[in-house]
Write a structure and sequence with these properties.
Radius of gyration: 29 Å
Helix content: 55-70%
Distance between the termini: 105 Å
InterPro entries: DUF1844
Strand content: under 5%
Pfam families: DUF1844
Organism: Poriferisphaera corsica
Largest sheet: none
Number of helices: 4
Oligomer: single chain
Number of strands: 0
Structural class: mainly alpha
Number of domains: 2
Protein name: DUF1844 domain-containing protein
Length: 131
């Protein structure tokens, strides 16, 4: 074979640039999605939608209303006995409506949670009346 007859190898260096551009595009999309999820009050990754999360939502709201969790805007606890009572009542509705449909562990968790919240509510409401 002569030089003119030797096989020619064509190197496509464009694929590297295309792959890099695609990688950058995907990275930008992922970053934008993260910004969108966390912007406008978003929290990023959400907790699983399950029974424990449902109960935890009401517990958190009740504790917030009882002043156990400070207001994130002011850093100060605020007391709203009506709101606390409402969230405890909502947990009671969940308990009543799910009787016989929960695992033993879920029943015990819910019963213990309600007991503790009710006790805390009574203690705080009595202390508030004495002031």
């Amino acid at each position: 074979m002569t030089d003119s007859e030797s096989p020619k190898i064509h190197i496509d260096s464009d694929w590297k640039a295309q792959a890099q551009a695609e990688k950058e595009r995907l990275s930008a999309e992922a970053e934008q999605k993260t910004d969108t999820d966390q912007g406008a009050g978003g929290m990023g990754e959400m907790p699983p939608a399950n029974f424990e999360t449902l109960i935890g939502t009401f517990v958190t709201q009740a504790l917030f209303a009882l002043g156990a969790i400070p207001d994130p805007r002011t850093g100060q606890p605020s007391l709203s006995l009506d709101l606390a009572r409402h969230n405890i009542d909502m947990l009671t509705v969940v308990s009543d409506k799910t009787k016989g449909n929960l695992s033993k562990e879920e029943e015990e968790t819910l019963a213990t949670t309600l007991y503790e919240l009710r006790n805390r509510y009574v203690q705080i409401s009595q202390a508030a009346r004495q002031q």
